[in-house]
Amino acid sequence: AGDYLKTTDKYTYATDVVSAGTDITTKTQTLAATSTSTIGYFGAGYTGIITAVTYKYTFGTDGVAAGTSLTQARSNPAATGNTTLGYFCGGNAGTVVATTDIYTYSGDSVAAGTSLSVARYYLAATGNSSYGAFIGGSASGAAGQVYDVYVYATGSMVSGSNAAVERARHAAMSSLPGGF
Does pTM top 0.90 for this prediction? Predict the structure, then answer.
């Protein structure tokens, strides 16, 4: 159906090669992803309906398994994380939401976290070992300029400096572990 895919691609940095990975179970679009050094976590999205489903992709074996569902079904969220926790924020659940879900990798559990300062979807995320940054997105007002920082140690969301230009449907990256 259109741009719904269940395929995955693997990029190998050392050889600069892209190869086919193992398919996730359901064709999905507008999902978010984060990872540890050994497992990738895909979550939420749209399968014909808005979903809260997550998948765990084990890099070493190319295995895919069901993960724990997020607390709220939504499409177009953003995700980032550190070595122990993944953070899925924002999205569209029929209305634009500020929801944050925290995925604990070792216990394979999900709990609600501190919400974004402004509800939005189509936002970008990046992070390091201490902070996750959620940047831009779409909603009413100046949401496209909002920059929220999730402080992992305290579980708090603080507002960063607003971007000079509104941004939606964009990407972000980090030079881990150095910063944003």
Answer: no
